[in-house]
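Q: Give me a protein?
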Amino acid sequence: MIEEKLKNSLQQCLDVLDASSASLWHGRFSLGAEAFIVAASLYDEGALLERAFYHFKQSVLALALTEGWPGGFNYWVQNRGLTFYLAVNTYLQSGDDKEFKAQLQQLALRNGLWHIYMTRPDGRVQASGDEGSRTDLKEESKKVLDLIARITQDPAIATFADYIQHQHGRDSYYRTDHWLIPFTFDPGLDHLPADKGLAVFDGWLPNQAIFGRHYLNQIILRTGWKSDDSYVLINGGQQFSHHQHADAGHFTYMFEGEPVAVDGAVYDSILSDFRLNYGIRSNAKNLLNVSFADTDYQPSSQFKTNQQDGSQHLSMPHGSAIRSVEHWLQETRRSNKYKRAEIQHYTTNETAQVILDLTPAYLSGGTTGNIIREFTFSNNGRLQITDSVKQTGGILLSHLNLPGLERNTCVDSDQAEQIPLSDNLRLTINTQGIPACDTSFAAQFFDILEKQLSRQQELAKGKAWSDGPFHVLTGAVQTNQGKARVVYDFQPLE
């Protein structure tokens, strides 16, 4: 009876996986893992096991490419992580390919570290994409981290799982998942006590890391691991999922443990006006809007208005159907459809520097070098961002969401302007180009902000993945002799 149900379930999974509708960095990922778990429990060999393993391997290749989850942490821990690592563990226990086993363990290590690095000084995971409540690390995360620690035998990952236990106690596992503990948790793993919080990683793990290099390009910079350290997350990668926002080059910044530059998106409904015309776009991010972007602003009938706001390409706004890693690579090579950014420079010494070419996110056709964003992060928490564009007659709006700003502000003077954000942090903005605060392009952007931000506080209220209300600072300049620049400098005050 049970075996017959499992066989029927396997066939249903394989029918979906062999078709083209399910998307790899979405439902196809966990379906491939489920199919392999069921097939391995039913068969030692045969065509069905081989078909299931093929699809599971596509899931492995997908995560190996990105290392983190493009659609956000909440989707990963609630919908993907446990199933995937149960499949990984199944192969480690039953598979024969030693090289593939080693690849699985290395992938688990990299993905396990991603969980740690995404955790901010305040103990919450930094929101990214269509995010949800479990960025607070409660209920869903520890079972995944326990299983990763069991697979890798890595003390840092085991220590992070212990950190979650110290933070949330019995709420580390959802109450109906406590039965999983004997299967996921290994009490014999070496680890350090995490009663002092993330500070346990000071001097143990590097302060900087990059995940999915050349693909997801999720970059974390920090001054240390204590609760009053500073933290930067940069999203600098390509498009993989419709729950991932069009936000290459976007960053969030915490100074001495407090949010300074935040994400404006709040996930409510995938087809809501707030999401389609604000949340997934550059408008909601610490990013650039440019008047010369060649984005299709009505990529589907779900977009009721043609809001030509200079934001990035909307290649997967509310749906995707990526069948395999090779399919994604082919589409990217063929049309640059999912390409958004290239890392031009990445160093992590005492002063970290990241330079991204964001041109592919705004301009199609393989153009490069027109839109550059540069980050410089010092070990005292100072953060500098330089946005440069090259385009005749183009307008650059470089904007930041700042909880410490008193009102929405536009700056276009060629004189440096200093803005106090707190008792210990000052922001200096310097623009180079023709003043553009009074242009029609800037006016349209401000109208969009006024409309959407009137709802932001209501939508964000009580959401674990929101840093609350903010105002927007915009540097607005038109190119002069084909060039324009906006420079932000977050300066610690002694």
